[in-house]
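RECORD TYPE: protein structure
NAME: DUF1552 domain-containing protein
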Amino acid sequence: MKNIVNINRRTFLKAAGSSLLLPALPSFFPRTASANVATQKTAPRRMCTVFFGMGVSLPPDDHIAYRDWHWFPHETGANYTLTKSTLALEPHRKRLTIMSGLSHPRTRTMYSHSTGAYFLSGADPKTPAGNAITADQVYAEHVGQHTRYPFITMDSEGGIGDFREPTTLSYNRSGQPIPSIGKPRGVFNELFGVGKGDKNTQLRDFGRNKSILDKMTQDLKVLENKLAGDDKNRLEQYLSSVRELEHRIERAEAWLDVEKPRIDESAFNLDTDPIKDGPTEFIDAMYQLMYTAFLTDSTRVISYQKVRESPGGYSVKFSKAIGLPGHHALSHGFNEEGGYERWGQYDAYLSERFAKFLNMMKSTDDPFAEGSLLDNTLVLYGSGTSTVHNTRNFPLVLAGGENFGFKHGEHRKYDESIPMSNLLNTMLQQLGAPISNFADSTGTIKNILV
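PREDICTED:
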């Protein structure tokens, strides 16, 4: 018999507001799925990435705004002081590490508006594929079979964008972009929506879709024999995407007998317009959905591009909606009077939204592990540029994951010779992914480990 719990609005909002701790709720988790966490001997280990484009305010040390609005702390080690740009993170300083100096060597000379595509891959943009598998997908391959969704990819705009200004952080093994979900309503429907029709109807739909894909694959294989060189490589990349879609259908079939958790949609602002209504409720709703996805063990891997690196993107208007210039204008207007201060104020706003997410995660008991959700979730927050079009010295925060070997409480500054892939490699290994190397990593970063 399936064992499902219904979260009502009052209970959820209390948890989301962190006014009380939720108890362990094993009834969230259906016991009938062979791949479910309930059958696992080890506690869930989760990976979460939050990306924002356009970099941060970093006034020089002789500028009047340097003391208050320089994103990085002025001191390294444990006795650092947060500036106004990140002051909202102060309650969590013992649970996070601020990291400076890291970047991807192979993207340091690239078109900076594409940095979101390489934030989690560190790939060489000049390779024929254009990209490589991202760290979230490496981990999803390792842990994804334990949950209904191996991963969730989110963005404030959705889709894939274009190759110069992508709207997704996630790329598969062929280096192809994985479309993101761009609205709270879309995320909720994916995670907790009820499928159309009864089981037999859905099985027929799955069968029909698989037949279409099978026929498509056969036809493409015939075409492949007539192609050579780059055309064959491009077709193989497409075939890889088709095979992934087939695998998703198979996974969906396997979970048909398992009801989704019943979540009261009125607990979320699912249809808020981030420009007309302001971005706060929109961003917070996305964070609340991430939190709920982890709490219900619907997935253990989430990436969210909160603001993409694009002068014309929808999400760059978020700052205008709260009374500041557009985000791209903020990043280019630093030399104007009050420019660094205005940019820093928006950095502070984004930090406040992120801090609220950390608060939800820390204030909720993990249903299947000792400690809080944050203790068992590794969260990477940051950007692929530091200042305007500068693809070096990424502003990074690593939080959580203390139950699998991470130690926090410091601002750590690294030499530019250490690639950011060392951080991604460290994260993946501590999460349990069976790898010894990731992308262009030269090892792991040991001083963030116990």
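COMMENT: The chain has two domains: 13-193+267-448, 195-259.
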